[in-house]
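Tutorial, part two.
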Amino acid sequence: MRTTVLGLAAAAVTFATPAWAQQADPHLARNLASACANCHGTGGVSQGAMPRLAGWSQADLERSMLDYKGGRLQGTVMPQLAKGYTDEQITLIAGWFAAQKP
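Running the prediction step on this input gives:
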């Protein structure tokens, strides 16, 4: 019984890794980024006052999101949203927007 529990726990840890998640769903980055469309437009091409995200460098996007998450950048909505993502998810989102045409 104990061996089974330990085996299941090891499997859970293995399958919870970001590398496995990326392999399991090739659209994970796009799906995570879709939540940003409400304010930043479809594909990160804003039609309003919010900044566009499409075409930014991955490093700049990632740094901004991590700064919101860490409280180094102030905002009304972004700090709360950024805290809902893991650092790995932020990397995926930043990479997806960086690959989009502005």
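Residues 2-15 form the longest helix (14 residues). In part three we will examine how such features are distributed along the chain.
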